[in-house]
Amino acid sequence: MLLRPDKGGPVRAAITGVHGYLPDYVMTNDELSTMVDTNDAWIVERTGIRQRHILKGEGLGTSHMAIEAVRGLLEKTGTSPDEIDVLVCATITPDMIIPSTANLICSALGMRQIGSFDVQAACSGFVYGLDVASQYIETGRAKKAILVGGDKMSSILDFKDRTTCILFGDAAAAVLLEPNDSGRGVIDVELHSDGNGEKHIHQKAGGSRMPASHASVDQRLHYLYLNGPAVFRAATEHMSASVREVVARNDLTLEEIDWFVPHQANKRIIEAIADRVGIPHDKVMLTLQKYGNTTAATIPLCLWDYESRLKEGDKLVFAAFGGGYTWGSALVEWAYDGAAAAKKNVKRHALGSVPAE
Q: Rounded to an integer, what distance in angstroms lies between the CA atom of residue 92 and that of residue 90?
């Protein structure tokens, strides 16, 4: 970490802007009930989700949403594409294996000859990506970095499987990271993984172990598999421990945390974690009722949704848990007046995408 030449303090990577993109099509629980054996009351009771956005259109992948999120971020922050030094994209639904989705984003927006790459850590992708992107800023290798989380989860969902198709939506959201020498920004990140979680969350076919074939398609092996009860237990346990750890090792108490920003997987998981660690529910960001689980996009979507409530100096804890397993937390001190930034006239896409005040 670089030190300030005047006071010897750390230069941190600060989030200086956030913007999101949601597809126009909104799929309600009632619509899902015409596809699988479920209903609105059953979904809301078990997950808290009421609707989700779905990307429709021939040839549209995750990059389409990520491009629009980054385009809005550049406009909102008054940043030129040629000012960006590195772009990191967190996703598990890349447009294709080669080139990376980050490459496609940069090409579409005129970011030429900069470092760009994808990070794959499932629902923990944004926290993992934050750790990577912030180090470019802290070491002085970049002055402006973009981290975008995006997933087109509808592309890997079996809409005949009610255990998975009710949970997920499509979206992307991006943040701008810049140096800050006032002490604000990304203070700490801790990451973990346990590959034994493979049996509980996986997409069995489509990789090098099981390439696509008639048999793999016929057996529906290209869809996401999720063992809900096992994942619930693991997510609750590991995210709770991670939150406690990142707060304690920075000599803070949970009472000093202004906002808890959890991955939006399931309302029951979020409430269980908050109760375990002692965070009041009114300090918990919650958006899954509108957007569902958008995987790598959930945490930045929360920041976008709640931006108008964020004040300079607010202390936030991000926490996520994803397939693999992967999990982690980040301690962040907010670096700008969110209310002023949220008023900037940048188009917000789709019904339900305007944050509730």
A: 7
Per CATH, the number for 186-342 is: 3.40.47.10
126 contacts 320 by C-beta, under 8 angstroms: yes
Active site residues: 123, 263, 293
Q: Is residue 328 within 8 Å of residue 296, measured between CB atoms?
A: no
Write down the pLDDT at residue 118: 98
Asked if 73 contacts 18 with a C-beta cutoff of 8 angstroms, the reply is yes
Strand order in the sheet with 145-152: 12-21, 170-180, 145-152, 86-90, 115-119
pLDDT digits (tens, 9 = 90+) for 271-329: 999 999 999 999 999 999 999 999 999 999 999 999 999 999 999 999 999 998 999 99
pTM of the model: 0.93
Does 229 have pLDDT greater than 60? yes
How distant, in Å, are the alpha carbons of 22, 36, 87, 145 from that of 106?
A: 19, 39, 8, 12
Instruction: Say if CB 150 and CB 129 are below 8 A apart.
Output: no
Q: Could you report how far apart the first and last alpha carbons of the chain are, in Å?
A: 37
- Every domain of the chain and the residues it spans: 12-183, 186-342
CATH number of 12-183: 3.40.47.10
CA distances from 38 to 31, 35, 54, 166, 264 (A): 10, 8, 19, 9, 21
Q: How far is CA 139 from CA 1, 11, 289, 350, in A?
A: 5, 8, 39, 38
Work out the number of other CB atoms within 10 angstroms of the CB of residue 90.
Answer: 33
CB 149 within 8 A of CB 297: yes
**pLDDT, tens digit, 9 for 90 and up, residues 46-80:** 999 999 999 999 999 999 999 999 999 999 999 99
Instruction: List helix spans (H) across the chain.
Output: 29-32, 40-47, 62-77, 101-109, 125-138, 162-165, 214-218, 228-248, 267-277, 288-291, 298-305, 338-342
Eight-class DSSP state of 33: T
- Helix 228-248 and helix 267-277: axis angle, to 10°? 40
Q: Is the pLDDT of residue 92 over 60?
A: yes
Is the omega angle on the peptide bond into residue 99 within 30 degrees of 0, that is, cis? yes
Rounded distance between C-alpha atoms, residue 290 and residue 305, angstroms: 11
